[in-house]
């Protein structure tokens, strides 16, 4: 994945002469310290991050942690006090006004809270709006808008006014409008906050679906950790203008690194966050013979062919028999395998006592095994022996 957006050592101090504040911050001073000494508010304190192309990158933190300031500094709605913003390697802070306007219009667009629609324009005109500003010819932009409306399930609503639609439908129009712009980097500042929970879930699913279709690069701001976990490929967690933890959702939950981050992870549903790949153990070889190779452990195993594909399953007692007598007793069809991406909750559902769950890759090869110990350990958040993180 190529890098699209890179932020390097970005600072934002709200105040006329930020140089003293910057010096204090670079010397290790905190936001509170700067405010106490100078009365200036620190929005960002040495923020660096990299957003790869085609991913949804989440910026998460409590109110006042600097999320919106970061979003606004990236496209210079707020002028950063120091640091660099690179869009496809180009320095955004060096752009003159005209070039900046062009970048905002065509390459990096900002989606504000609630996707507010223009109330006196029809739904289709709302979706077309950004394209019109870009000077796309009428027939072409109409086609694109119609396409997008049907993609969000509102193909027949183009000629209605926004007030004739339900809240959820209006949100979908807003999402279609955001995606209609050809800018392939979208900065979304809490677009779903304040929505009722059902509509919010529906919108999150819709965004994930559309993201897969359009492969946009999205920097998504949220204060909701669950939302960050659900949508994000990577998450940056902010506190007091700094990034205090950055990583994949699974790595952050496994190793929060501080009490501040750990507090967000406590209530999350681990069964739906972790996948088979992240809990499986490497299969140990127990036996080799003309019939194939047996891998697994005391809880059960698998007989594999020469291509490492599962031929048959062995229950725990059959593994004991093999160990004691060297006698192979494996039953064809008597095993459970899941794909690497299967969620832990699905693995737990397929688990049978005295059997090990196999994990297979796209080519059908056995790449790992999961016993009850791994499932329970990850759900209860204990380190499991041999499990990958
Ligand atoms: N225009 C401004 N002038 C002065 N201080 C500001 C300004 N905008 C933001 N701040 C301050 O910068 C800090 C970061 O604010 P920001 O809005 O980025 O936080 P946030 O994480 O987006 O919060 P929220 O979730 O409440 O929107 C806060 O201390 C805020 O008071």
UniProtKB/TrEMBL annotation:
Residues 5-265 form the ABC transporter domain. Belongs to the ABC transporter superfamily. The complex is probably composed of two ATP-binding proteins (TmoW), two transmembrane proteins (TmoV) and a solute-binding protein (TmoX). Gene3D superfamilies: P-loop containing nucleotide triphosphate hydrolases. Its EC number is 7.6.2.9. One of its GO terms (molecular function) is ABC-type quaternary ammonium compound transporting activity. The keyword ATP-binding applies. Signal peptide: none annotated. One of its GO terms (biological process) is response to osmotic stress. InterPro entries: AAA+_ATPase, ABC_osmolyte_uptake_ATP-bind, ABC_transporter-like_ATP-bd, ABC_transporter-like_CS, P-loop_NTPase. It catalyses: a quaternary ammonium(out) + ATP + H2O = a quaternary ammonium(in) + ADP + phosphate + H(+). It comes from Aquabacter spiritensis. Keywords: ATP-binding, Nucleotide-binding, Transport. The keyword ATP-binding applies. This is Trimethylamine N-oxide transport system ATP-binding protein TmoW.
